[in-house]
Protein: Thioesterase domain-containing protein
Organism: Cylindrodendrum hubeiense
Amino acid sequence: MSPPTYNRLVCPGLNLSPEETPSDLFDKEHAFFNSFPWTAARLSVPGAIAFVPPCRNPVTDVHDQLFGRTLANDRSITHMLCIFRAESPAAALDPAQTITEMETLICAGDGVSGFPNVVHGGVVASMLDESMGALFDLNTTLGKDASAFKANNVTGKLDVSYLRPTPTNSVFRITVKVEEMNGRKTKFHCELKDEKDVVLAKCSSLWVTVKPSL
């Protein structure tokens, strides 16, 4: 039985398809990244389960507009798809098994440049930040037991190191890993890598669970 859908995450592998989701949303993203040998290899790793994060499938005109509408065009963040690994769909759906690692495949067009042919640093930070948020969305949607997934979480700190220029009109992968979960605080490490697995940017981040009264 599929878990209740708390947000707009789309994952055919786990039978998650929220109402009013464009019928070709997942297939278009999957086909795009499957057309590059190096990202196709990521999608075919044993146990890999792909999903479209909620930020690319807004439920209203005031929700997830940055990545879902404003940047979702042929010159900005043209494509985005996330992947996590599990021993089986049953393991992925097990509330006791928190998912602590995933990656985002993402394509940035020439409309997000700062310097010519280089992705704006603020957009790089946003891509890293959004990927970490997608990991929260995944665990929340799958009904994981940890208290952090029972309420909203926000970025409390984002420390980004820009190591090399991030070229526009390129495909990247962003690796996300939870380093520590302690009550309302979750610490992440995140890296933006190119086709050759060169790290272009990395960050450490602290996320905080919002109190119900806020």
Residues 121-141 form the longest helix (21 residues).
